[in-house]
Design brief:
Layout lengths: L5 H5 L6 E4 L5 E4 L1 H7 L8 H6 L13 H8 L3 E8 L4 E12 L5 E10 L3 E2 L7 E2 L3 H13 L6 E4 L6 H10 L8 E5 L5 H9 E2 L11 E2 L1 H4 L4 E5 L6 H13 L1 E2 L8 E2 L3 E6 L3 H7 L4 H7 L2 E4 L10 H9 L9 E2 L1 H8 L6 H15 L4 E2 L6 H4 L9 H4 L4 H15 L4 H8 L3 H16 L1
Parallel strand pairs: 6-7, 8-15, 8-16, 9-12, 12-15, 17-18
Antiparallel strand pairs: 1-2, 1-5, 3-4, 4-5, 10-11, 13-14
Length: about 425
């Protein structure tokens, strides 16, 4: 067995890497690590440098890849937020055990891959947030990205499915290939086939030249099918055949062509329910849903509102140096955002144009947001009289926000039957969409 010093092992990595022992002590570091975190002092432990913690990550409620690697004697990884010299950064942390040839380990190599797509704070990154639901979603993204597995993104409209799909592509081995998008909503049979498979000159009226389809264009890269649940069932078999064989025939062609792409799909509809209703093919569903990822709605990640507002206000067409007042931010946090981040962006753009001094105040927000009453703001009742029905609906909105139990438990807390609660919640949902 050839003996290699820990510092020599680290030169094999171009990403930040350290050699640590079972007690988390940093025994060696490579230049990339020192550039990001500074040169570790003698006796420094990994959690001291990357998190400014005084104890291991798992004691702070985070997963610890070193702990996992020690118990399994296999590589382990997880997503962490690291404190770098001047900012905080999402990092995919991988720990590799280094065997000593005697059934034990010399130590562990920790390799850090920085996220190019996500940031815990407002930045130029496409994805912003650090709430627990957001972190769980990003953990799934970085778990599946290095593989070639098909991904199904599930979530409400406006939650950023295309941004997540692009983040998976950018973190994959196909990142140098194309990221190709096909919007499936409202697509008819002829358009679906011509867009996906392409056509040959003279295949139909108006086909004056050959056109490459998106299936061929995405070869070597990623094909993203947005709103895949809207594909008519008679067209689903053609998509299934493409996925199973990797081959297709352009319209008007006589020979089959081959393609090789990674597939990511998205839908705001519940495809599993559609399978049960007979409106979506079961065999296609299981082909698409190898690795489902849930995108949380904005109402489940209210902690991210300040960073999201700051990031969205930094982009055109918002005037420069515009920000949201604390009062307006508190009022936004009371809203359920049925349109999610897309709706928040539109609200902020409109409000920024109404704010002459670049400060978005509560008065610049839409009426359906400013009329929401905080359970702790009794002075609001003196500003405007509300009907008892409005008060009840607003309290139901508040109860949903703060209560973490099941609908049956919420009904018991409110002193009504579960059936009555469902009826009232249906009225609340209707009021929010009107």
């Amino acid at each position: 067995m050839i003996n290699i010093e820990p510092s020599g092992l680290l030169t094999l990595f171009d990403k930040p890497a350290i050699f640590i022992d079972k007690s988390y002590r940093i025994l060696a570091s490579n230049p990339a690590y020192e550039k990001r975190y500074g040169t570790p002092q003698d006796g420094s432990r990994c959690y001291n440098v990357s998190h400014s913690y005084d104890s291991p990550c798992h004691t702070h409620g985070e997963s610890c890849p070193l702990q996992q690697a020690q118990s399994s004697s296999k590589p382990a990884r997880c997503l962490h937020i690291h404190q770098q010299q001047d900012h905080r950064q999402y990092c995919n942390v991988q720990v590799l055990p280094v065997p000593d040839g005697k059934g034990d380990h010399l130590g562990y190599i920790e390799v850090i891959t920085e996220s190019e797509s996500a940031s815990p704070l407002a930045s130029n990154k496409a994805l912003v947030g650090e709430s627990p639901p957001f972190q769980r979603m990003m953990e799934s993204v970085y778990r599946v990205a290095p593989t070639n597995v098909s991904v199904l993104l599930e979530g409400e409209s406006g939650t950023g499915k295309e941004l997540i799909a692009k983040a998976i592509h950018d973190a994959s081995q196909r990142r140098l290939g194309k990221f190709v998008v096909l919007e499936c909503s409202g697509i008819n049979e002829n358009l679906f086939e011509s867009e996906l498979f392409g056509y040959r000159k003279g295949a139909f009226t108006g086909a004056r030249s050959d056109r490459e389809g998106l299936a061929a264009s995405a070869s070597g890269g990623t094909l993203f099918l947005d709103e895949v649940g809207d594909i008519p069932i008679n067209l689903q078999v053609k998509l299934l055949r493409l996925l199973e064989t990797g081959s297709f025939r352009p319209i008007g062609a006589t020979e089959m062509e081959r393609t090789d792409f990674r597939l990511i799909c998205a839908s705001h509809k519940n495809l599993k329910e559609m399978v049960e209703q007979g409106t979506f093919r079961e065999d296609l569903y299981y082909r698409l849903a190898t690795f489902p990822i849930h995108l949380p709605p904005l109402r489940e990640r209210k902690e991210d509102l300040p960073a999201l507002c700051e990031a969205l206000l930094a982009k055109p067409p918002v005037p420069e140096h515009t920000y949201v007042s604390n009062a307006a931010l508190r009022q936004l946090a009371r809203y359920r955002f049925p349109g999610n981040i897309r709706e928040l962006r539109n609200i902020l753009i409109r409000a920024s144009l109404l704010a002459d001094d670049h400060v978005i105040q509560t008065k610049h927000l839409p009426g359906d947001i400013t009329d929401l009453i905080s359970a702790h703001d009794k002075s609001h009742f003196a500003e405007k009289l509300h009907t008892l029905e409005e008060i009840e609906l607003q309290y139901l909105h508040h109860a949903q926000e703060v209560f973490g139990g099941s609908p049956a438990q919420l009904a018991q807390q409110l002193g009504v039957s579960e059936r009555t609660l469902y009826r009232k919640l249906a009225r609340l949902k209707q009021a929010e969409t009107d």
